[in-house]
Amino acid sequence: MASILIAEDEARISAFVEKGLRSAGYATRVATTGPEALDLALSDEFDMMILDIGLPGMDGFEVLSNVRGSGSNLPVIVLTARGGGADTVAGLEGGADDYMAKPFRFDELLARIRLRMQSTQAASGEAALSHRGLELDVRTRRAKVAGTEVDLSGREFMLAEELMRHAGQVLSREQLLSRVWGYDFDPGSNVVDVYIRYLRNKLGADRIETVRGMGYRMV
Fold this sequence. Notes:
By secondary structure, this protein is of the alpha/beta class. The protein contains eight helices and eleven strands. Helix 4 links the parallel strand 4 (76-80) and strand 5 (98-101). The mean pLDDT is 85. Keywords: DNA-binding, Phosphoprotein, Transcription, Transcription regulation, Two-component regulatory system.
């Protein structure tokens, strides 16, 4: 599960963002001061930071400068009420990956987070995955089972890749729906279950285990 640091001193905003991110399948932690945000950002515990500029103790620009000065490539999205052109340029030139002004729409923030996460994973991820005779070539989007090529649709491949990258780990339906389809959880949707069935038919029924009340995992 990807983990996001929310550096925001206004409790109402941090609670709103945290609730939305957790519903989308992310782990979160809130930092309310600049020094705390910097310490946590350099801890290697997080996959992304949402950074407010107006933090007490050390403003967001200084936090960002110290993070980049340490050599960290942690993706950072600046989220602030200071949306003027000069501040935007300063944030981006200071090493921010993206910049959003308050007030903001959460669905737009979530879309930007997913885009940055995908870009980071694509840059750092393995080009080929292999697990118990199943092979996925991420670049060509081809799959093989015991050396025999299997035809997967684009969505089936994305689901297989997500399960394979987290082999042995239980992924909830909410997480899979968010990461593979880009949707927030809809309790009325059974699309995850349907595609799990497709994958079992194509890759082997024993590869994907149902964990009752929790979700699925590649064994």
